[in-house]
Amino acid sequence: MGSIYLIRHGQASFGAENYDVLSPLGFQQSAALGDYLNQMGIRFDRCVSGELNRQQDTARATLQQMAPYGESRLPPLEIDAAFNEFRADEVIRAHMDDLLAIEPKAMLVFANAANHRAEFQRLFKYVIQRWVSGDHEKQDLESWQSFVDRVQAGLSRLLEQADGKDHIAIFTSGGTITALLQLIIGVSPIKAFELNWQIVNTSISRLKYRDQDVALASFNGHAHLEVLKNPELVTYR
Question: Which of 30, 74, 159, 204 shows the greatest Cβ crowding within 10 Å of its Cβ?
Answer without folding.
Answer: 30
